[in-house]
Every structure is written in structure tokens, then in C-alpha cells.
Amino acid sequence: MARNGKTAAESGARPVKVNAWNGWDPLRHVIVGRATGTVVQAPEPAVRRDFPDDGFPLGTYGPMPAGMTAEADAQLDDFAELLRGRGIRVDRPTPLDFTREVATPDWTHPSMSGCMPPRDLLLTVGNEILEATMSYRSRWFEYLCYRPVLQALFDADEDMRWEAAPKPRLTDASYHAGFWDTYPTLSTEEQLARVRAHDLVLTEAEPLFDAADVARFGRDLFVQLSFVTNRSGHRWLKRHFPEHRVHAVTSTNTHPLHIDATWVPLRPGLVLHCGERLADAELMEFFRRNDWEIVEAVQPASWDHPPKLSYCSPWLAGNVLNLDPRTLCVEEKEVRLADQLVSLGFEVVPVPFRAVGPFGGGLHCATVDIEREGTLEDYFPRRHGRY
User: Is the pTM above the cut of 0.90?
Assistant: First the structure.
């Protein structure tokens, strides 16, 4: 209902509709995350945070500094208003007390995390919104932050499909014991061999995946195997989306975590690629065989690591958000990347967003598409090898 008691149709507002097949069709409705209450996570089998120079050495945890949180929230609020000013409907999550201890019958964990990067948790494919499993115990209950939004969408759009992947148990059997004690001591070559073999922190005891490891290209979904997504998670997604071609891909990043700053669709026929993390040759050949141009992103010009508590790479610069096939939101200090994108025919909207990085990502990470105008298309009619 509208605030005056009328329905959306009666008040002239655009009816709520869940629909998004890719990352570039015109954006009409989005979720923007919040930094409020975010904590540095307590150590757990899936992840360790170690910021000795910033007051959180390994083994410690607690709320992010209040000043950092306030600055990040201000930038997120301003971004939400920018989108609203362009006629895009914006929803926001409801933060929990992320400092509280959480538990299931299998484990107890001293803290949660936050609700800044909704892209990690929610995947929109057509008229379906899917809640991902997550693989961090500190993020097991994060879905609760988005339930008010999802309930409202379900009530407003009778065609919406609201799905949740099986909640994982996340017992010790889901993780390789001692991974974080040995992996950092390996050489780069040894780490890359582990990445190619997908011999990382997760076992195959149960399906695990983050939504941000899925890149949507119409009928084709590309699922990156990473620190948070295992082969079993890929298999689950493949069975869940039987009308799609669901491909497993690996990275050449020694710390693969989410695909949306590595293999970034910009518009049909054009993908932006992080040159430091080259995709495997077969995937690149598959795209080129289907007449896609692969453009290597310029080196991040000004994305030095934020001074405190950030686990994001400088390549977060490539974590851009499409407003439509011609318009991209880019972090305002990434001038060289903006110039590159303008040379490719895009209008660039600069967005102050540097303060948000320590809370889990960039412009794409901070959002989830609810509606993009467009229909399901096949952008890869020419099959190739395992693709």
C-alpha cells in the first residue's frame, strides 16, 4: 500500500515487480545495505580477521569504530538518495545487534557481522529472490535483516518466488582443519595450485555458496568456486536453476572471494576483467567465440587500502553498478577507470564510496537488484568445451 492508503496502481506509483536476469538492464528497484552495527568478526573456521595496527589483532573482535560506521552510513544514505533521484525504488535492511552471541544446536559463535553487503546473501534470477547459504557462522543469521523487505516484496508481487537454499549446519566437517594456519605460509604458486584444484577452506560436506559468487548473463550463470563457495554449492545451484546453464569457474586470485570485482558484465557483448586475476583460457575463449569483447580494467588509480580494518583488495575499484546498459556508477576517486569506461561509450556517475569498503565491498556489493527492465535472453548461442 502507498502511504495515503491507496495501492501502488491507484496512486500512480510503479507496481512492485521482482524481475532481473542480468546486471545491466535498466534498474528500477534495488536494496542498498547499511553499515550500522557492523562488527569485526570473531575468529571462526571459515575466516580470520587480523588487524594488529588498527586495534583488532588476531583473536579479538567487536564493533567497528563509531566514526567509520557513521561515515560509511552517510555515504550509503547519499547513494540511496542518488538512486531515488533517478526514479529507482530503494529498500534497506533492518540491522540486528551484531555484537550478540549466536548459536545453533551444532555450534556457538561470539558475534555476527553486519548487513552492508546484501549482494553476498541475495540472488535475483528472473522473478525469484534466493537466499544463499553463507559459509561463515557469523553470517548464518544475516538473512533476518532482509526478511522485512522480502516479506513486503512477497506481499506486493503475486508472481515473486521467494526461495532459500538449505541452511547449512556449518559443523567442523564443513571446513578443512588448520587451513588458515598453513595456507598463508604457501608460496604464490602453491596457493594458485590449490585454487585451481579448489582445495581451499571449505570441504564438500554440504552445499555452500555466497550469492556474490554468481554472475548473471541471462540464460547463463557463472559460479565462482572460492573461499565461500564449494563444488557442492555449484551443483545445488545447477539443480535449482534447471532452465539455466550454470557453469563453475575458477580464479587465478590466491584469495578468491566473490566474482563481482573480477568478471564484470557491462552490457551485452562487453565484460570488464581484472587483469591481475585472469580467467582460465577456456572461459575466455567461450566468451570470445560468442562475440564478447573482454576488456582488461586499468590498474586502480587511487584505491589505496582504506587506512583501517579493510579486507578488500584495490580491485574493488571494478565493483561498479549498472543503472542501464549505458550508465555506470563508479567510486568517485577512480578517475582512470571512469575515463576508461567513458572511452567505451558509458556515462559515468561518480559516487563517494571509499568509506564503505571496510564494511564489505563497493557499489555492486552494497546493492541487490530487485527489478531491472528486460527479459531472459541467450547471450551465448555458441557452445564451447565444458561451457
Answer: yes
